[in-house]
Amino acid sequence: MPDPKSLSTPVIVADHIRKNFGGVSAVDGVSLSVAAGEIHAVVGENGAGKSTLMRILAGVIAADEGEVRVNGVALSGGPRAALAAGVALVHQELSLIPDMSVAENIVLGSTPTSAGFVKRREMLATARSALEEIGVEVDLDEPISRLSVSLRQFVEIARAVARKPKVLILDEPTATLTPAETKDLLDMLERLAKNGMAIIYISHRIPEVFQLCTAVTVLRDGKLIHTVPIPDTSPSAVIEAMVGRELANELAADHAARTVGDVVLSAKGIRAPKVNGVDLEVRAGQIIGLGGLVGAGRTELIRAIIGADPRTAGEVSMTANGRTRTINNYQVAVRSGIGYVPEERRTDGLALSMSVIDNVVLPNRSALATAGVLRNARILDYVGRLADEVGLRPPRIQQDAGQFSGGNQQKVVIAKWLGRRPALIVLDEPTRGVDVGAKAEIHRLVRGLADDGAGVLFVSSDLPELLDLADIIHVVRDGQIVGTLPRAEADERAVMSLASGQKAVND
Amino acid sequence: MSNVRTTERTTAVGRARTVLARRTEGRAVALLVVVAIVAAVFEPVVFSSFPVVLGRLALIGLVALGLTALILLGELDLSVASTLALSGVVMASVPNLGLGIIAALITGIVVGLINAFFVVVVGINSFIATLGMLFALRGAAFVISAEKPVPLENIDAGIAFGSSLLGPLTPRVLLFFVIFAVLQILLSRTRIGREFYAVGGNRQAAIDVGIPVRRRLVLGFVISGVVAATAGIINTLELTAADPTAGSTVLLASFAAAIIGGVVLTGGRGTIVGTLLGALALSILQVVLTLSGVQVDIQDIFIGSILLVAIISDPSSLRTAWVRLRAAITRSRTRDTARGLTGNAADQ
Amino acid sequence: MAKPTFTESIGVVAPTSTELSTGARVIKFVADRGIIAFTVILIVYAAIFVNGFASLPNISDVFYRAAPIGIVALGMTFVVISANYLDLSVVAQVATSAVIFIGVSNQAGLAPAILLALLVAVIYGVVNGVAVGFFHANAVIVTLATTFVGLGVLRWLSGGSIFFGPNGGVIQSLGQAKVGPIPLSAIVLIVMAVILGFVLQKTTFGFSIRSYGSNKAATRLAGVRTGQLVVGAFLITSISAMVAGFVLAAFSNTAVSSMAEGYDFQALAAIIIGGTSVFGGKGSVYRTLLGVVFVSVLTNILVLVGLTFGAQQVAIGVLIVVAVSIDAIARKLVKN
User: N or C: more exposed end of chain C, with fewer CB within 10 A?
Assistant: First the structure.
């Protein structure tokens, strides 16, 4: 049991932290302090600056302004120094070595040696005690590559715990866990806190926060909204604080009724890794939005539907121009009239070192060629017209795609498909990292496509965007559709409640 | 206390199966078994001619051992054959045998350092950097040797080196096993060696936990260079002369041994034991084929085919191919059902 | 409307990133365009200062030597641009083609020889391409394996013997043929460069190859059948190697299984020195042609000034590393 004094004096203090990425403020003057034995939640929408703040606390990136103090001593000198000072971060993306054993991964970076040789017994003892501390049994000699994703997550936590940290930071640790595993994890964190560890817990899942934590800090758009003790707040108040926009401004866009046509895309019983049985339909002229938390399986779902990744079960058919085709692989999907704007614009959407012209020509190469020979005049005309249509700025189509801003890069990705007049366009986070002006233009383009009779299926973690664009919102959690909201019934709180599983808890 | 645990196998058989499933040397063992059966049926004399097999093993496998350490880091060294030739020529050009050997080893170290410089400091892909060195070092060997084999001053030492030392073991075979043991201990028992797996398996994670990645890379290139130089020294001693064209088949044999042994080219996966088994399988195969009177050319066909099968039977390659195959099967099946449906409709 | 129209902007080709320092821009220029300048400087230098370079026999000798390796390099450019490193098996392919060209035509005539060579080339291209494109195996190892198999088959069937074309036969006269002062083999090289340059630059196939080399994921997600694409790249290399085998055999009127040793890395050297990036995507057939000219002229000069074979190899090795270092440094500077 921690003595009352240590509960009152904070172990870690973040003092007016500020961090900009290329002119965009990611964390804006946020302060935070956590005492020993406290489990402190940090919540916020995607992009609220939680992960950046945690990386600063753990010394992975340096703050532009402000400082982090551990037991009153200012932190400097990168992740090693932070670790030495007692701050351990469990990353969101796993950082284990696939072909090293569990024990080796737990001690990695501080492997016990004598004369250069690994002291195996000591290594095993350290690893075993770390695993015992978190209450997990794993064969210490098992290579990581043979463990399940959730066990890897526990090994990652064991690695942090093995450093005997004063402060343990966990970034979305339950994203990949089953409910039973989640319960184990939460029990474990409670135990660690009882033994005097200060824990900072980042999660999208509001019920977990209320079950586990002692206080919650809400971030929005990089700013601190407030820090309140858990007994003084409620789940809906927290969601309100997370979302907290003035809705009136966002509803300006026109919602002219569109005529909805026949079914374009029909997906039944879709299963794939992280997708657990989904039925979905998209009609011509209809905009379907997929809401949910990061890691809920939305990207996996759409990629499985269009055949970009293999599915383990399910049937998908596309009907365009009076022809119905079964979609079994991605090439067929493209030829049946599907356009796909992937989430990872810079790696999957564009060839950054090629010109805008070349990027747009790629999916349209056959139409722009005679007998396999590309026609330059036709290409210039075609790409120029599309650049105008999407509002590319500057409209220098000979320039490399990589030299454009994020918003204009995204316009290029959309332009790739626009010229084909797709029967269905699938977009994954279409406006992530895009400035406000470009965002409005992208929304205009998506509506325009639907107005022209295309079906639209999109994933967005940006709630106002989801509510603004979609005619129907499906909320996805744990690879399943947990709720469907027509525009009339949808608001931010309804989506967030479904997405974070709060509904289920209340039921 | 907790219900999070691995599916623990408690029976002895299950336990053994788990241990086996963790190993990466499966393909090498499979090939070894096949080769051993073939040998037992056609040329059982192989099993009583250890010196021949071991000599062949040391010939094929030595350079592969050093290369394995480097591949585990996720890098390649195409210059090993040239390093072998150059260090031999350097050695033979020095009149004193002892100094010559030292000079040859220094050559190996320097080559490793130059390769590492281009990869680690300049930031060139190791494939291209060592490709440049492949030309440059071979050229240097030609220049130093004036394009002819350089005879060793101390021929007696060479003849002594070629003869047996301990039972059937020649110094070459002994050296091979010494280097095998050193690298095996390095890569399985020491911290530095284990960190090779981290650098090759997840380089960003290795950097994050503070492993000196650059120093590990330099060490890897130096190991590869020194082992190749050692092979050059041995060749020179055995032939009592250094040929600037030496080692032309070394590159293929080394890669073949490592890949058959389960070493993955992208790094982080594989073992020195695997490379040894791969080299052993290849050497027994060669000896069997030679004893059966199969021409060298046909032996090459065998070995090339085995390498081709080995590389496309890599687990990730098989998975890719399997996904495509399954997609093709389901496609034809749905087409069949579609046809069936239209058929029914026509019947009605 | 303030929005600039497309026609207003079409003239602007130069990138806007003017923040690069002068030094960085010089290095980037050298990395992008240096080979042209270097080739011109080298030729002018040789013409003025190197005795015997600017003579007609010497220049036609340069062409004779450049043609077969150059043709291989032109084809292999497709594999390099598709970000698959290189095709080592050209060593076996060129030799096989040459042996078939002379050996089979001695027995059965020219047409069956050419058909058989073509069949062999297709087999090579398909085997290499399927292993790399469909099984996603490393191209270096795959082509290393097919080299071994191919050379083994060739030596086995040919018995390792040297084949001679009949004196005064068709093949010999083709090998000696000239159009004006230019040897026929040089014309074949130029024609191949024009055809392959057209394919890579102007056709949807070539376009997809370049795109695939730049970004495999984005190319696949644009609906391109990437497996077939890789097979195509290897097929073009194989066909080029076949033509190179014909040229090589005709030039010497002999063929032997070891005649193309070193063609793999020499062709790659010409490609890299020409400025085609080994990371794929960036490069062209014309660059490779320049690289071939540069390496051939340089080698010729080194021979003329009396340097040995070994020294030439050192020069080529150093050249590769320097060319790629400039590229790597330019990338770093641009990134910063």
Answer: N
* CATH 2.40.10.340 fits domain A248-337+422-507: no
CA distance A183 to A164: 23
Residue B135: how many CA atoms within 13 Å on its side-chain side? 26
pLDDT of chain B, 348 residues: tens digit per residue: 444 444 444 577 777 777 777 788 888 888 889 888 988 888 888 888 778 888 888 878 999 999 999 999 999 999 999 999 999 999 999 988 899 999 999 999 999 999 999 999 998 889 889 988 998 999 999 999 988 899 988 777 777 776 766 676 788 888 999 999 999 999 999 999 999 999 999 998 888 788 899 999 999 999 999 999 999 999 898 888 898 888 877 887 888 899 889 898 889 999 999 999 999 998 998 888 888 888 888 888 988 898 898 888 776 667 766 766 666 565 544 444 443 333 333 333
Encoded tokens for B173? 């075979």
Residue B290, classified by CB atoms within 10 Å of its CB into exposed (0-12), middle (13-18) or buried (19+), is middle
Neighboring chains of B (3 or more beta-carbon pairs < 8 A):
A, C
Query: In this complex, which chains have at least 3 CB pairs below 8 Å with chain C?
Result: A, B
DSSP SS3 for C306: coil
**Is A98 touching B (CB cutoff 8 A)?**
yes
Task: Compute CA distances C149 → B299, B300, B318, C153, C319, whole Å.
Answer: 9, 6, 22, 6, 31
Q: What is the CATH number of domain A4-247?
A: 3.40.50.300
Determine the Cα–Cα distance for residues A407 and A70; give it in Å rounded to an integer. 40
Asked, colleague to colleague, whether A4-247 and A248-337+422-507 share their fold, the answer is yes
Q: Would you state the structure tokens that stand for residue A305, as one six-digit string?
A: 């539907």
CB contact under 8 A, C217 and A347: yes
Element (H, E) at C293: helix C285-304
- The type of residue at A205 is R
The distance of Cα C273 from the centroid of its chain, to the nearest Å, equals 11
Domain ranges for chain C, please list them.
Answer: 52-335
Q: Where are the domains of chain A?
A: 4-247, 248-337+422-507, 350-420
- The interface predicted TM-score of the complex, written ipTM, equals 0.82
